[in-house]
Write a structure and sequence with these properties.
769 residues; alpha/beta; six-stranded mixed β-sheet; five-stranded mixed β-sheet; globular
Length: 769
């Protein structure tokens, strides 16, 4: 969203458009209103498409253009109230957008861990469960007149550069992980009641958006130069999965240009790809004032009317802002736009509102109409927030092992650091008002007597004035826990990081405390992005390191549960932790994913970067040990074709089959994997399956193709079935952006266990040119 100085006027006006709270009762089609109750668009017995067409046909052009914006105007003569489309639910119902507010019967909502933390669980079932709870609370607040039904979440951009301030909002750097997260969270939000929507989700920001404000370049002026290969192979994957696997009701286009064209004015991206190829059943919305941005800041069009026309004709249906309401009617009058183009946009937005039941009369009589205050911040919802935090914590280092701490040996604990008593910082950005908070200090205090010293007045840690008391506390305690890291003052929307080290004097504090500590020193890190903690990794006096991300309202309780062994950690890093040297000479503006030794370019993410790391993607330790055995897997898989073309555009080119020429359907590789817990503690294991394609096929070094979560009691074994869709996950993308399946041996690996699978082409017929 636009929370930046470029458009303060638009946002201040938007914030004034918060509904009065008198939303209890029908949005439209009030059965008590005899003038509208019998109109066709109010009749639930006829198909939604007919209802939408009837309503559009009754609107004047002046009424239509006022429905093209997020603060949609009322149409009193048809009994339709005004509606604010902009609400947020990134990891809980949020009041960032003007469509939602807290107060009265709804003082807060369950605040789950930030997305980067939840992604570290690699637990799709959990993601869907969180979505269900968030949508329960959203519907309850809608019924109470304090929230909308259209939520512009999740953010599924790729965490391409570790400095990106909004990386915390994403599921990480891997496109399959991000896409799977998108699909499951969206399913949880939108429900499973056929065509009816519980709430309408939105996958954002399409596409190649992962720079906010770096080195004088901001998102409003950035032209992302991206190859066809990287678009298809990386940036678009989560959005495609969100639309096709999650059936999301909306996609948001981003501020930036892609190869010289603003995404919100690009018909190839919006009309041809999202709606045409992927078959979006829903609406396309702009990031806030994006249309105004590409006219005013990017100077893409000569007139505002042309900007409005370009956006709508490209496939934009809704403008977060006022631009389309101000200029679309004039665009029609000047012949730049046809009224039918506006009709087409309204068909998409009104269809979503009807799928939400907004034209079905009395809300209390609808499927979710009974949800209310008792369903928000309920004990079960808050317990899920705690469980999500436990599952997202990653154990990076455990020397000895030193963790878990002992109730008997570690009775007095020094709790030190600027994040040691964090509350609001734990919920990250795009958050609302939490039900309550358990800080790390409070959580640890449930297990041991604590000696608390912050050491630094805030995460910037500009001086060492408070070091002495912290060092003294470490000398007196049986164990020392340092809770360090970042917060929104360091990484946030419109605030990209300058480097990867801990801010200010934090490193110095950690090292001095560790040197003085009488007992084991544990470093707990809160952050959205990776931190270069090589010093701590290599310091034998620092016994263990935990990454907690931004763990949500119950984060402190979850951290303490892991420290004391009530929870056995099972999280894995959803992004690579690079050394500072990686970014020293690396421009955030360089969008290339693949490395180029000739240009001294290192590449991006674990898929294409081979250099040194602090901790790799997928890293995460446990308090027990797991052993994998592949007990069932094919050695050869035939890929059926419809034939091949004898031309330069061959189906089989360099022994790689075009995906659209293969009979993909349910073509998959099935694995049976035994997971044995050889340790002494019960544990939930996160199993990641990677594939290394045959060499020479434009391929990543390796790529994630499947993952699973399995609970295995100590000393026992569980069998885990894995299915890998060949066309989706064993394919690669050539330099023209064409997805192909490499013929030959693909190596599947789970930790140190490898299994070769040979894919072989099977020609069944001939493709007609």
């Amino acid at each position: 969203m636009a929370i930046a100085s470029l458009i303060p006027t638009v946002l201040s006006l938007l914030l004034l458009s918060v509904a009065s709270g008198d939303a209890i009762g029908p949005f439209a089609c009030d059965p008590k209103d005899s003038t509208t109750a019998t109109l066709p668009f109010c009749r639930v017995s006829i198909p939604i498409s007919d209802r939408v067409n009837d309503l559009v046909g009754r609107l004047t052009l002046q009424e239509k253009v006022k429905l093209l914006i997020s603060g949609a105007a009322a149409v009193p003569r048809l009994g339709i109230k005004g509606y604010e489309w902009w609400s947020e639910a990134l990891h809980g119902v949020s009041d960032v957008g003007p469509g939602t507010r807290f107060g009265g019967a709804f003082p807060g909502a369950t605040s789950f861990p930030q997305v980067i933390t939840t992604a570290a669980s690699f637990n799709a079932t959990l993601w869907e469960a969180i979505g269900r709870v968030v949508s329960d609370e959203a519907r309850a607040m809608y019924n109470g007149g304090t929230a909308g039904l259209t939520y512009w979440s999740p953010n599924v951009n790729i965490f391409r550069d570790p400095r990106w301030g909004r990386g915390q909002e994403t599921p990480g750097e891997d496109p399959v992980l991000a896409g799977t997260y998108a699909a499951f969270y969206v399913r949880g939000l939108q429900g499973s009641d056929g065509d009816r929507l519980k709430v309408a989700a939105c996958c954002k920001h399409f596409t190649a958006y992962d720079l906010d404000n770096w080195n004088g370049v901001d998102r409003f002026h950035f032209n992302a130069k991206v190859s066809k290969q990287d678009i298809e192979d990386t940036f678009d994957v989560p959005f495609k999965m969100c639309v096709q696997d999650g059936n999301v009701a909306s996609v948001m286009c981003s501020y930036n240009e892609v190869n010289g064209v603003p995404t919100c004015a690009d018909p190839n991206l919006l009309r041809n790809t999202v709606r045409g190829q992927w078959k979006l059943d829903g609406y396309i919305v702009s990031d806030c004032d994006s249309v105004g941005v590409f006219y005013n800041a990017q100077h893409y069009t000569a007139t505002p009317e042309q900007a409005a026309a370009d956006a709508i004709k490209a496939g934009l249906d809704l403008d977060c802002g006022f631009f389309l309401a101000q200029h679309s009617e004039d665009a029609v009058k000047k012949g730049l736009l046809k009224e039918v183009d506006i009709n087409n946009a309204l068909v998409n937005t009104l269809r979503v509102q009807m799928r939400l039941g907004m034209f079905d009369g009395e809300p209390s009589a609808q499927p979710y109409g009974k949800l209310g205050p008792k369903d928000v911040c309920s004990p079960s919802n808050q317990e899920l927030a705690l469980e999500a935090a436990r599952q997202g914590i990653v154990l990076l280092k455990n020397r000895g092992p030193s963790l878990p701490l002992s109730h008997l040996r570690h009775r007095t604990v020094a709790v030190i650091g600027p994040n040691s008593d964090a509350t609001v910082s734990m919920i990250g950005n795009y958050a609302g008002v939490a039900c309550g908070y358990t800080s790390p200090l409070k959580g640890i205090g449930n297990y041991a007597k604590t000696i608390h010293q912050i050491g630094c007045s805030d995460v910037a840690c500009r001086d060492d004035m408070l070091f002495g008391a912290a060092i003294d506390a470490a000398r007196r305690a049986d164990a020392t826990i340092l809770v360090m890291g970042l917060d929104q003052s360091i990484e946030a929307e419109f605030r990209d990081r300058k480097g990867l080290h801990l801010p200010g004097h934090q490193q110095e504090l950690v090292s001095k405390v560790a040197k003085a500590s009488r007992g084991p020193t544990i470093l707990v890190l809160m952050s959205g992005g990776p931190i270069d903690v090589s010093f701590a990794k290599n310091d034998p006096r620092i016994a263990a390191i935990l990454w907690a991300g931004y763990p949500g309202q119950a984060g402190g309780a979850a951290i303490a549960d892991v420290l004391y062994g009530t929870t056995n950690p099972g999280g894995k890093l959803p992004m690579t932790w690079y050394p500072q040297e990686y970014v020293s000479n690396l421009a955030m503006t360089n969008m290339a994913m693949r490395s180029s030794p000739r240009r001294n370019y290192p590449g991006r993410t674990y898929r294409f970067y081979k250099g040194p790391v602090v901790y790799p993607f997928g890293h995460g330790l446990s308090y027990t040990d797991f052993v994998h055995t592949i007990v069932g897997a094919p050695k050869v898989v035939a890929v059926p074709l419809d034939g091949h073309r004898h031309s330069t555009n061959a189906t089989v080119l360099g022994k790689a089959i075009k995906v659209n020429h293969a009979r993909c359907n349910k073509l998959s590789v099935g694995l049976q994997v035994n997971v044995k817990n050889t340790g002494s503690k019960d544990g939930t294991h996160t199993m990641l399956v990677f594939s290394t394609p045959p060499a020479g096929h434009w391929a990543p070094h390796k790529q994630l193709v499947a993952f699973a979560k399995v609970h295995v009691p100590a000393g026992s074994e569980q069998r885990v079935p894995i299915s890998i869709h060949v066309c989706k996950f064993l394919s690669v993308v050539d330099t023209s952006g064409v997805r192909r399946i490499p013929i030959g041996v693909h190596h599947l690996h789970i930790d140190n266990v490898k299994h070769p699978v040979s894919l072989q082409a099977e020609t069944l017929g001939v493709i007609k040119s």
